[in-house]
Amino acid sequence: MKKKEKVPTSYDDLPWYRKSGTNSFLMLVHVLTLGAIPLLLITCFALVTGNIYYDKADEQGHLKAWSGANRVIAFLLLLPPLLIIGVVVLTIAGL
User: Fold this and answer.
1) Is there a contact between 41 and 27 (Cβ–Cβ < 8 Å)?
2) Which of 36, 31, 13, 28 is nearest to 85 (CA)?
3) What is the Cα–Cα distance from 5 to 52, expressed in whole angstroms?
4) Cβ(23)–Cβ(43) under 8 Å?
């Protein structure tokens, strides 16, 4: 049986890697540096291990989490730099 995740109610109690503002900044740096500084890896790791939350609550007082569209965009932004790194490594290895 899957354990139900506890939904936080206070943005200040979240760790830095679960906050939307922090992850939006990491995505912005990633895009502005064209992936040369792959800070988006932190965001993707946070998304794989749980939710990232907005500083807004729903009707029950629970913080709203990133939607599936945000997750897809984060992973799609990560693909080009990973492919480039793979090509560079293969070129150096002579394969």
Assistant:
1) no
2) 36
3) 13
4) yes
Taking only the tens place, the pLDDT of each residue in 17-30 is: 999 999 999 999 98
Q: Spell out the residues 6+ positions from residue 9 whose beta carbon is closer than 8 angstroms to its own.
A: 57, 61, 62, 63
Please classify residue 14 by burial: count the beta carbons closer than 10 Å to its beta carbon, then call 0-12 exposed, 13-18 middle and 19+ buried.
middle
Domain ranges of the chain: 11-93
Do 64 and 32 form a contact (C-beta atoms < 8 A)?
A: no
Q: Where are the alpha helices (H) located in the chain, listed in sequence order? A: 20-32, 40-49, 68-93
